[in-house]
Amino acid sequence: MKAIPYGRQNIDQKDIDAVVEILKSDYLTTGPKVAEFETLFAKYVNSKYAVAISNGTAALHLCALALGVNKGSKVITTPITFAASANCVRYCGGEVVFADIDPENILLDIDKVRELLEASPKGTYQGIIPVDFAGYPVNTEEFRKLADEYDLWIVEDACHAPGASFINSKGDKILSGDGTYSDLTVFSFHPVKHIACGEGGMITTNNKDLYDKLMALRTHGIVKNNEIMEEKGGWAYDMVTLGYNYRLTDFQCALGITQLDKADQGLARRRSIASRYDQVFEGTKVKTIIPPTQIGHAYHLYVVQIDNRKELYQKLREKNIYAQIHYIPVHTLGYYNSQGYKKGSMPNAEAYYEKCISLPMYPSLTDEEQQYVIEQVLAFAK
Questions:
Q1: In 83, 98, 232, 241, which residue has its Cα 20 to 30 A from 264's Cα atom?
Q2: Which residues, 6 or more positions from 273, have their beta carbon under 8 angstroms from its beta carbon?
C-alpha cells in the first residue's frame, strides 16, 4: 500500500487551470480575485463580511488586535488546539488563561469557563476563544449567553470547521462563521484543511466596525478613500493604525474559489469516511468520539483514543500509515510552562492526550485505503 497520510489536499485540473489563469493575468496580488473569494466565502458561511488573510495564525492575530487585546487583557481558551489559538493573545501582550476540556467532545468546557469567571470580579477577563476541534462545532449560543453575562467577546476558531453546524435552542441551523453568536470567526486554508490555498485564512463577522478595522490592519494600517484622494491627489493614502502585511494573493484566492466549489462534496465524503470508522470501531477497544445526531460535524480530523497510543503510532508507520497526534496540550509546552502553567493543571486535556491519535481523513482517501487502515488498527487493538 502506498503512503497514507492523516490528511492531504485534493487538487484537480480545474484548480490548476484557475491558478494558471491568474499567473497569466495582470494581478498576482491585491486584485479582483481576493474580493471575489471573500464574497463567495461569506455567502458559504452565511456571514455579512469576510476578510482574506495570509494564514490562519495571522487571522487570529488580527482578531486579537481588532478587539483591543493588550497587556492588561486576560483571554480564556482551550489547551487542546494548535498553539496559534493561544499565541495570538500573547502577540498582543495579553495573558492566556486555559480552561479544561469536556472529555465527551474534547471541546472547551463551558462549566470550567464559568468557574474561572465566577472566581474573579467582573472585568477580569476580556474574551473567549473556543475552538471547533476536529470539525466539531462549539455551541456558541451557550457561550454567547455566558459571554454576555460578563461582557466578553467571542472569537470562534473554526479552522477545522468550514461547513460545520449545530441546531440552536430555537431549532435553527447555525453555521460555524455565520456570526450569529461569535464576534469574529477564523478559518484556515492550509493544505490539509477542507479548502486548500497552500496557506491562507479568512475572518468572518457581521460587525461593520470590526470589518473596517480588519481591512486596515491587514494592509499595514493603510486606508485609501475618495475623500483623501480628492484632497491630496490620486496617489494619496493615510495610515490610521499600526498594521501588518497579512494579505492573501490572487492566485491563492483563485485556488480557494475552485476549492470552495467542491467543499460540500468534500464534506459529504468526510462524513461518509467517519461513518465507516464509527461503525467498525463500535464495541472494540478503539474509543471513538461520536457526536450527537443534531451536530453537523465537519470532520477535519477523525480522532480515536486507545491504550498504548505510541505503540500504535509506530506500528501504523511501519505499515505506511502516517497517523498524527492532535494535540500536545498547549499549557504543557515549554513556553507556556514559563508563563506559569504546569502539567497536571488540566487533567481532562492531559488524559485525552495520552490516548489520542488521528486516523487518515480526507476526501480522496479511497475505500480500499480506509479498509487497510481499519484492518491495521483493529489488528493492533486485539
A1: 83
A2: 299, 302, 361, 365, 370
Consecutive 10-residue averages of pLDDT for the chain (382 residues): 96 98 96 98 98 98 98 97 98 98 97 98 98 98 98 98 97 98 98 97 98 97 83 87 97 98 98 97 94 89 98 98 98 96 96 98 98 98 94
> Which residue's C-alpha cell is 461520536?
290
Q: Which of 165, 178, 156, 173 is nearest to 46 (CA)?
A: 178
Asked if residue 33 lies in contact with residue 22, where contact means CB atoms within 8 angstroms, the answer is yes
H helices of 67-190, in order, are 84-91, 110-118, 140-149
Domains and CATH numbers, the chain: 4-261 (3.40.640.10), 263-381 (3.90.1150.10)
The CA distance from 51 to 78, in Å, is 25
Residue 175 — φ and ψ, nearest 5°? -85, 140
Instruction: State the burial class of residue 259 (Cβ atoms within 10 Å of its Cβ: 0-12, 13-18, 19+).
Output: buried
Omega before residue 313 within 30° of 0, cis: no
**CA gap 91, 71 in Å, rounded:** 10
Cα-only R_g, the chain: 21
